[in-house]
């Protein structure tokens, strides 16, 4: 594949290892498109975290029942396919030989019900670093629907988190319009999620955790480009997000394990500081031209549909942001204060909150991420 010198993908984000435009072209920031999706009964500001449920690593195993009440959405990591193109997703609790403290399945199901009784959402997250999913056929699409539905039903879960990374999504040559995708793996994924939403109804919680490479990089590069030669994964999440925006509960892009990304100021921003989160989130909340085309704008999402994704500690992923910098980013995006070098194109007090990889790593780090979230939002 061609190398994108300005925004190279550095590594996949959710690993099971120890470390793991112009203004005229944008919709007005205060008039985002309406969507039919209710906020899935989330609090005004939500804390989202991934729980290492099917594996162990250096952060240690955490039982679902032991996750503190501060966590509003708990993404169970991970459901993975039997093969890349099968669509057949499997999920099981971590083996006792790997996780000596793992709960029994009945205890786990009871913990799911207890979390739901407390107003929390428990989702199955599909993908991660090792779970490459390519729904290249309708048979794979149907297997995905059946197997994911089976996991949701078996454990009584609230919905689905799509955490496709690596080579799960790539655009075929000639697929240049995010509003009308033609790549089978993307068309089939959209269809599968719509089917699941139709099965479970309005309370079905749908979240996504793409990397910046698959979203904001689309401002510069989309797929292989009009003449070929670009990385076909560039911006490849955009048609999925756009097609499902009326069903989407929450998008939390991984603002970590990322190369430099160009913002709406046409400057490159580097992970690890407030400006990166401000610039990346501003793109989602203001909208942005795709592949630099001012006549082809990815529309803004509602602020209630957006959270900022960060690693919980320096051990969890590249691009850890100190709590004070996170607070500056939130102040800038919600209050137009402490904005530093990047000025966003609006102020969005309804910004939903924060996501982190992961609950386990935050526990390992004495709950610094959770404590900072609670302190900022008055939890």
From TrEMBL:
<dbReference type="GO" id="GO:0005975">
    <property type="term" value="P:carbohydrate metabolic process"/>
</dbReference>
<keyword id="KW-0326">Glycosidase</keyword>
<dbReference type="InterPro" id="IPR017853">
    <property type="entry name" value="GH"/>
</dbReference>
<dbReference type="Pfam" id="PF00704">
    <property type="entry name" value="Glyco_hydro_18"/>
</dbReference>
<dbReference type="GO" id="GO:0008843">
    <property type="term" value="F:endochitinase activity"/>
</dbReference>
<dbReference type="InterPro" id="IPR050542">
    <property type="entry name" value="Glycosyl_Hydrlase18_Chitinase"/>
</dbReference>
<feature type="region of interest" description="Disordered">
    <location>
        <begin position="15"/>
        <end position="38"/>
    </location>
</feature>
<keyword id="KW-0378">Hydrolase</keyword>
<dbReference type="InterPro" id="IPR001223">
    <property type="entry name" value="Glyco_hydro18_cat"/>
</dbReference>
<feature type="domain" description="GH18">
    <location>
        <begin position="45"/>
        <end position="379"/>
    </location>
</feature>
<comment type="similarity">
    <text>Belongs to the glycosyl hydrolase 18 family.</text>
</comment>
<dbReference type="GO" id="GO:0008061">
    <property type="term" value="F:chitin binding"/>
</dbReference>
<protein>
    <recommendedName>
        <fullName>chitinase</fullName>
        <ecNumber>3.2.1.14</ecNumber>
    </recommendedName>
</protein>
<dbReference type="InterPro" id="IPR011583">
    <property type="entry name" value="Chitinase_II/V-like_cat"/>
</dbReference>
<feature type="compositionally biased region" description="Low complexity">
    <location>
        <begin position="15"/>
        <end position="36"/>
    </location>
</feature>
<dbReference type="InterPro" id="IPR001579">
    <property type="entry name" value="Glyco_hydro_18_chit_AS"/>
</dbReference>
């Amino acid at each position: 594949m061609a190398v994108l010198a300005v925004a190279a993908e550095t590594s996949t984000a959710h690993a099971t290892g120890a470390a793991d435009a112009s203004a005229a072209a944008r919709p007005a920031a205060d008039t985002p498109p309406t969507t039919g999706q209710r906020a899935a009964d989330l609090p005004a500001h939500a804390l989202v975290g991934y729980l290492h449920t099917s594996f162990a690593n250096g952060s240690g195993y955490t039982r679902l029942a032991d996750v503190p009440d501060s966590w509003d959405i708990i993404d169970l990591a991970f459901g993975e396919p039997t093969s890349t193109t099968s669509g057949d997703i499997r999920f099981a609790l971590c083996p006792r030989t790997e996780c000596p403290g793992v709960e029994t399945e009945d205890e786990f199901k009871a913990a799911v019900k207890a979390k739901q009784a407390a107003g929390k959402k428990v989702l199955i997250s599909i993908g991660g670093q090792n779970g490459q999913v390519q729904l290249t056929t309708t048979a794979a699409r149907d297997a995905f629907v059946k197997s994911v539905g089976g996991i949701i039903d078996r454990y009584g879960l609230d919905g689905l988190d799509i955490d496709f990374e690596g080579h799960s999504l790539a655009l075929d040559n000639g697929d240049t319009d995010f509003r009308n995708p033609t790549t089978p793996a993307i068309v089939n994924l959209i269809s599968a999620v719509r089917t699941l939403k139709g099965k479970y109804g309005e309370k079905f919680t749908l979240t996504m955790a793409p990397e910046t490479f698959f979203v904001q990089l689309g401002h510069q590069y989309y797929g292989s480009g009009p003449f070929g030669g670009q990385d076909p994964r560039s911006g490849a999440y955009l048609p999925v997000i756009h097609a499902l925006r009326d069903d989407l509960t929450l998008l939390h892009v991984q603002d970590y394990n990322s190369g430099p990304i160009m913002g709406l100021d046409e400057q490159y921003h580097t992970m690890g500081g407030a400006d990166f989160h401000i610039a990346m989130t501003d793109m989602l909340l203001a909208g942005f031209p795709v592949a630099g085309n001012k006549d082809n704008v990815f529309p803004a999402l509602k602020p209630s549909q957006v959270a900022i994704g960060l690693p919980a500690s320096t051990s969890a992923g590249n691009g850890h942001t100190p709590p004070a910098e996170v607070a500056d980013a939130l102040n800038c995006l919600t209050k137009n204060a402490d904005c530093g070098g990047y000025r966003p194109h609006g102020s969005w007090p309804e910004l939903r909150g924060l996501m982190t990889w992961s609950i386990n790593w935050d526990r390992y780090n004495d709950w610094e991420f959770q404590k900072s979230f609670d302190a900022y939002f008055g939890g």
